[in-house]
Amino acid sequence: MKHVHGGNIYTYKNCLDFSANCNPLGTPESVKQAVRDSLDHLKDYPQVGYAPLKEAIAAYEDVKPEHIICGNGAAELVFSLCHALRPRRALIPVPTFAEYEQALESVGAQVEHVLLKEEEEFCVQDSFIDWLHKDLDMVFLCNPNNPTGMLTDREFLFKLLRVCREMDIFLVVDECFQDFIRDPGQYSLKAQLPRYHNLFLLKAFTKRYAMAGVRLGYGITENEELLEKMTLATQPWNISVPAQAAGIAALKETDYVERARNLIFEEAEYLSGELYKLGMTVFPSQANYLFFKGPEDLFEICVRKNVLIRDCSNYPGLGKGFYRVAVRTHEENEQLIRTIHDGLMEERKKAQQEEEEQ
């Protein structure tokens, strides 16, 4: 099932959307205004190379502009990276973000999987390194992982990096959700970039600033030869005028991001506790979304009540009954809990009535 994602508000109209895990505070007003102000330039081609945007990102990330590449969302960078490197064999843990495998398949790569196990809370284990071999060209890792929200320990990542370099394997680490963990500095590999030219980090504006519709992501690496290859594999006007303006404005919103982080820390605890009370198996997600196991028809129950959650059954390694929900505002989270509670009660009553009629 290609291109099945959260946020499908076009099919499921008039639903409160918990399926897309963006910043619960919504798009900052300054970003909306920047997009409005850019409309006078819609007649103009975007700036090739997007120097002002790269400089703003570089200042935000404390890296050099020449070590940054931007994409039409982080997903485009996954594809341009694969088209630049043309890996023959790659390794990914599953379940994880579907675009890694799609991008690898688009260049004919053979994809090997390491199955993350429910009894291990879908965490990447030390044994993951045992799956590395010299015929591999690339490894993808999402930290925290999507859809499970599980973090991979930094010491393990250091070991993985070393082994990948020894075996001449390129490592891609998706850090798009690290904005919403308690201590990003303890998990990011950014400080390792000067030492490891086989490392590429993925980042995105999508979740941090709730601007999924704008499509803007970026990657960081000190492998300048790779960046040149990726640029050649990408069409020149991939970042629109409004997207460049939105990105520059968004990076100034530091207080907004901190307010969202504090809200998510508080509300994730509330939401996790309430889901547990409703009988769900809740995994200890560290991101701005919760991953849990519940009734196989829960997605349909919620949609009937105009609430959209992410059915994760299309992820490799998962089946029916696994779900992901975004952490939103307290009032919205209360509505989700009421919806699930009322929906489950109605289903039980219906089942009782059917039993009595038989």
Q: Helical region count? A: 11
Strand element count: 13
Termini separation comes to 39 Å
Secondary-structure element order, as H and E?
EHHEHEHEEHEEHEHHHEEHEEEH
Major sheet: arrangement of strands: 2-8-7-6-5-3-4
Q: What integer value in Å does the Rg equal?
A: 21 Å
**Percent of sequence in beta strands:** 15-25%
How many strands, what sense, and barrel or not for the largest sheet? 7 strands, mixed
pLDDT < 50 stretches: none
- Helicity, in percent? 25-40%
User: Could you say which structural class the secondary elements and strand pairing correspond to?
Assistant: alpha/beta
Shape: globular
Mean pLDDT over all positions: 95
Task: Quickly describe the structure.
By secondary structure, this protein is of the alpha/beta class.
Descriptive tags:
single chain; 358 residues; 7-stranded mixed β-sheet; 38% helix
Describe the structure.
- With 358 residues, the protein is of the alpha/beta class.
- 38% of the residues lie in helices and 15% in strands.
- The chain contains 11 helices and 13 strands.
- The chain has helices at residues 29-38, 51-61, 74-85, 98-106, 154-166, 205-208, 224-232, 241-250, 254-277, 298-304, 330-357; strands at 16-17, 68-71, 89-94, 110-115, 138-142, 170-174, 199-204, 217-220, 281-282, 289-293, 307-308, 310-311, 322-326.
- Strands 2-8-7-6-5-3-4 form a 7-stranded mixed β-sheet, with helices on both faces. Strands 9-10-13-12 form a 4-stranded antiparallel β-sheet, with helices on one face.
- β5, α5 (154-166) and β6 form a beta-alpha-beta unit.
- α3 (74-85) runs parallel beside α4 and α3 crosses α7 (224-232).
- The longest helix has 28 residues, at 330-357.
- The mean pLDDT is 95.
